[in-house]
Amino acid sequence: MRGAKSATWIAGAIAIALSATACGGSSGSSGAEAGFVRANWGDPQNPLEPANTNEVLGGKVLDQIFMNLKEYDPKTGEAKNAAAESIETSDAQNFTIKLKKGLKFSNGEPLTAKSFVDAWNYAALATNKQKNAYFFSDIEGYDKTSPEEGKPTAQTLSGLKVVDDTTFTVKLSKKFGTWPVRLGYKAFSPLPKMFFDKHEEYLKKPVGNGPYAVDSYERGKLMKLVPNKYYTGDHKPQNKGVLLQVFTDSNAAYAALQAGNLDVNDDIPAEQIKNAKNDLKGNYHTQPAGLYQAVTFPFYKPEWNKPGMEKVRKGISMAIDRKSITEKIYNGTRTPMVDLTSPVLGEANGYDKNLCGDVCTYNPTEAKKLIEEGGGIPGGKLTISYNADKDSHKQWADAACNSINKVLGDDKACVGNPVGTFGDFRNQITKGEMNGPFRAGWQMDYPHIENFLTPLYKTGSSSNDGKWSNKEFDKLMDEAAAETDIKKATDIYKQAEKIVIQDAVNIPLFYQNGTVGWSDKVSDVTLNPFSVPVFSDIKVKG
Amino acid sequence: MGRYVIRRLLQMVPVFIGTTFLIFVMVYAIGDPVAAMFGDRTPDPATAAAIRESLHLNDPLWSQYLQYMAGIFQGDFGTSFNGTPVVELMGNAFPNTIKLTLVAFAIELVVGLTLGVIAGLRRGRIVDTGVLVFTLLVISVPTFVTGYVLQYFIGVKLGWAAPAVSIDVTFDQLLLPGIVLAGVSLAYVSRLTRTSIAENLRSDYIRTATAKGLPRRRVVTVHLMRNSLIPVVTFLGTDIGGLMAGAVVTERIFNIQGVGYQLYQGILRQNSPTVVGFVTILVVVFLAANLLVDLLYAVLDPRIRYA
After folding, report:
1. Sign of CA dihedral A481, A483, A489, A493
2. Rounded distance, CA B90 to CA B88, Å?
3. Could you tell me which chain B residue has the CA closest to the CA of A199?
4. Helix or strand or coil: residue A101?
5. CB neighbours of B166 closer than 8 A, spacing ≥ 6?
6. CA angle (A414, A415, A420) in 5-degree steps
7. In 3D, which of A329, A500, A312 has the Cα closest to residue A407?
8. Chain B, window 225-244: residues with a beta carbon less than 8 angstroms from a chain A beta carbon
9. Subunit contact B40:A218, Cβ cutoff 8 A
């Protein structure tokens, strides 16, 4: 009976393995804690360092645990002083920043001017590999800490000086009047001493100065945020804390929300949008985000840059029926674009619903006429390239092509061109290998028109993917930068934006919307301009 | 048998090197992972250069592979791009997947074998037809469809089970995903068992055993089952690896942070260390499962000898 004996052994081994793994399981942190908001989260892409976080998942935490010099009003998007008492300049180049008194980090450490200066120096030094380093490129000395080639020749930015405990000065390498507006961006967060002394420990449990403090963090699973007792700002949490739970999939999170195992979900799957209002009994809200999808052209290819092509580009823009694409394909979770910024900016920061006008309006006859006048599509055929691995760009690219083909009465005039991975797509763009129009999405860093123009269209800018160049535009941008009055500067930026629209450098398609659904257990759920729920305002019932 | 095991283990070495090298080349050939790290913007040249250098991306591929393998043998699987050591990710992911696999395997074993034996013994009757129709249905419906349908009706509508597994991953929560994951394999197991049983039922040794006057129970469990299980065990053995790797879909649907989820994330974010590390471990699991299957043959059929 050799066989029977072995069989018992195997059965026994399976039983032991089963019971052994069962024991390890129940650490007991998933249970609903009274007064806590249970929210949907995903695993951040980068280590949780402020200057190294350039995506929403890490940003969601940093928004809660940091108070920057400025903060953006959740409703209007306006940049207001937060940790800063005042930020002053007389020449749009030298800034004096005064901090509020008595600020502290959530571990009790006092927050001084040095906390900011050290953090910014750390971010700007190339060897620290911070993905948001380029945010500090306007400060004098960045070319030494992050030279384009070779090793850094300086460890700190020469433009930063600590005056006293609550004051520091910043010298920019050239005039940039709206520079303080960007100081609400998370890359500019202050860092406690502990960040530099015990870096590993910091990454396991980040310390900030915001409304919430990290109580515990199980990487890839759960982060528990509790109110920061040292926080003195305007957004005192209305709840006992937030449990950020990592979900593997937006559908899984949606199922958990429906079953009452989750309170706030800001990632409603696109295919559920139609049912969300019904499923969630009205506990659903959607609003445009500071994120859009557009198409740009390779201006480094002569056939797309020769005289007359602006008419063709404009014609292509007018041949796309944005309204029916957003309604039919996206169920209204995207909004047709009417300018090159985003509605979250509000008019004060440069959003203008009349700016794009007829260039963004579907007009088949005019579109066809313009394309023909301009000499037609180069080679009679165009492709729209996009990365096919995420965010379902295929749907709109095919729909846009379909719309263009209908206008031209040619089935093969435009086809979508999927590129396998995002990395490969970005590589082709940075190497200048695109032959036709390609996807050009933009997600804002801070709500001001400047962030929607400088990086994308200024000659030689980092994200000027089409390598477009225009002297008049550059001149206006410099003029706006030299202006110390933000209102006046915004108006000049708008003039520059008009040049981009008229030259049809970028075909604006649609603003992407943020969505949020919530359970009956919570109330007062809103989204900020970055489409992140305003957690401090959420109230928990019972 | 000892020599056989040693020979098999030695054979595993080139297979291991070959597969890992292929995976390594494929993952690193996809393109520059650094460009993808910066989202829709062009990387700052200094930062990108520093990241490339720290990831050894400027070295030739063979050198990168050697460095990687040297690390693996010291238990260092590299660091995922979010700063978490891959070993730590594995420590979190593998227990969850192993739990899920065990649940699925147990369901597959018990339900699959039972259905197969019953159908095989009653070949051509209504029970047999029923099992055939059921397995056909299970095989033809894709896993993600069964997954979402069961999640919606049993989890959300009826509330009998949690639709999304909590971070603690307890066995009762794994029952539903386990059924989904087991589904297709279960159908194969019962079909294999059925055919095998039905065939052996007509063989000489069964006739002899019955003629000897052995009770039917003994004929079926000892004589019939033992011989009929050989093809089934082959399938079950290789299926352990298959289940672990195939959990990608099920784990995403039911919110289980296991191997499938980590692999999916790794691929989506072009996180090469994660992908290569996890696949390497899966290769080892496959190889080990295959060895185990071959060794089990002798237990089931003493006529099979190792030389």
Report:
1. negative
2. 5
3. B83
4. coil
5. A30, A261, B173
6. 150
7. A312
8. 226
9. no
The amino acid that residue A478 corresponds to is D
What token pair was written down for A382?
A: 């165009």
Mean pLDDT on A20-38: 56
Q: How many CB atoms lie within 10 A of CB A529?
A: 27
Interface of A with B in 381-410 (CB under 8 A): 389-390
Over range A246-259, report the average pLDDT: 90
Residue by residue, DSSP assigns A223-260 as EEEEE-TT--SS---SSSEEEEEE-S-HHHHHHHHHTT
Rounded Cα gap, residues A399 and A382, in angstroms:
14
Interface mutation vs chain B, best among A38, A61, A131, A506, most B CBs within 10 Å: A131
Q: Which of A108, A346, A361, A334 is nearest to A230 (CA)?
A: A108
pLDDT of B31? 67
> If you measure CA to CA, which chain B residue comes closest to A429?
B42
- Residue of A129, A261, A530 to mutate when probing chain B, most B C-beta within 10 A: A129
Cα–Cα distance measured from residue A91 to residue A177, given in angstroms and rounded to the nearest whole number:
8
Spatial neighbors of B10 by CB under 8 A, at least 6 apart, are: none
**In chain B, positions 162-181, which contact chain A (CB-CB < 8 Å)?**
162-164, 166-171
Chain-chain contact of A43 with B302 (C-beta, under 8 angstroms):
no
Closest approach of chain B CAs to the CA of A5, in angstroms? 9
Which tokens hold the place of B27?
A: 């993952």
Q: Report residue A89 as tokens.
A: 């300049």
pLDDT of residue B226: 82
Asked if the model's pLDDT at residue A150 lies above 90, the reply is no
| Portion 79-138 of A in contact with B at CB < 8 A | 126-131, 133-134, 137
Residue A216 touches chain B, beta carbons under 8 Å: no
User: Cα–chain-centroid distance for residue A164?
Assistant: 34
Q: What is the pLDDT along chain B (307 residues), one digit of tens a residue?
A: 678 888 888 988 898 889 888 988 888 776 677 877 887 777 888 888 888 888 888 888 888 888 888 888 888 888 888 888 888 889 888 999 999 999 999 999 999 999 999 999 888 889 999 999 999 998 898 888 888 898 888 888 888 888 888 878 888 888 999 999 998 889 999 999 999 998 888 889 888 988 988 888 888 888 888 888 888 888 888 888 788 877 888 898 898 888 888 888 888 888 888 888 888 888 888 888 888 888 877 777 777 766 5
- Look at residue A161 and tell me whether its pLDDT is greater than 90: yes
B252–chain A Cβ distance below 8 A for any pair: yes
> To 10 degrees, the CA torsion angle through A388, A39, A205, A22?
-90
- Token pair of A17, please? 């393995």
The residue with tokens 């109330």 is A523
pTM of the predicted model as reported, rounded to 2 decimal places: 0.84
Q: Does A25 touch chain B (CB under 8 A)?
A: yes
Give A104's DSSP letter: B
Q: Write the CA distances from A440 to A319, A342, A507, B223, integer angstroms.
A: 18, 15, 9, 69
How would residue A4 be classed by pLDDT, with cut points 50, 70 and 90? Answer: very low
- The two three-digit tokens of residue A148, written as one number: 């384009």
Chain A positions in Cβ-Cβ contact with residue B159 (cut-off 8 Å): 259
The residues pairing with A533 across neighbouring beta strands, listed in sequence order, are A527
Encoded tokens for A212: 């919430």
Write down the pLDDT at residue B72. Answer: 86
Residue with tokens 């009465």: A409
Question: How far is residue A162's CA from residue A154's CA, in Å, rounded to a whole number?
Answer: 17
Instruction: Output the pLDDT for position B30.
Output: 67
CA-wise closest residue to A514 among A525, A498, A501, A524: A525
This complex has an ipTM of 0.83
